[in-house]
Write a structure and sequence with these properties.
Blueprint: H1 2-13, H2 20-31, E1 35-36, H3 37-47, H4 53-65, E2 70-72, E3 80-82, E4 90-94, E5 100-103, E6 129-132, H5 135-143
Parallel strand pairs: 4-6
Antiparallel strand pairs: 1-3, 2-3, 4-5
Helix pairs in contact: 1-2, 2-3, 3-4
The chain binds zinc ion (2 copies).
Length: 144
């Protein structure tokens, strides 16, 4: 499996031991972007039935700390995880169903947005959440 060995190389580059739970979490996030912890656990258990909740939490924390996984926390929602890291992309979040979509950085590199007043800060990152209603939810509403 070619992707698995890519993941092994990424783990080694981040000085993390290659373990089956870590590979399973990376594989789950490759196939499902912006999923919450419970979803990651059920995806990993489909592959490794005996992995504990705590083990998956620990893997997510280690991978996030190492920069292999990005954790996003839309206000009022559970934390979500994705493999797309390092590009400072933003997110569209549906208020109705919670669906999340990626939005590329407006100018292509972090921090992407200029603050109206930086108050002397050296800004290296801007994270924007665009809240709204996704196309499916909009269509359902107008169909009612
Ligand atoms: Zn929606
Ligand atoms: Zn994303």
């Amino acid at each position: 499996m070619r992707m698995a060995s890519d993941f092994e190389a990424q783990l080694r580059a981040a000085s993390l031991r290659v373990t089956r739970p870590r590979l399973a979490v990376l594989g789950a996030l490759r196939d499902h972007a912006h999923v919450d912890t419970d979803t990651v656990i059920s995806l990993v258990r489909a592959e490794l039935p005996r992995v504990s909740h705590q083990a998956v939490y620990d893997v997510l924390r280690a991978l996030t700390t190492a920069g292999l996984v990005r954790r996003i926390e839309p206000a009022g929602a559970a934390a979500r995880y994705e493999l797309r890291v390092g590009d400072n992309h933003h997110h569209l979040v549906c208020r109705s169903c919670g669906m999340i979509a990626d939005v590329d950085c407006a100018v292509g590199e972090a921090p992407c947005l200029t603050a109206s007043d930086d108050q002397g800060f050296v800004i290296d990152e801007a994270e924007v959440v665009y809240w709204g209603t996704c196309p499916d939810c909009t269509n359902q509403r107008s169909a009612q």
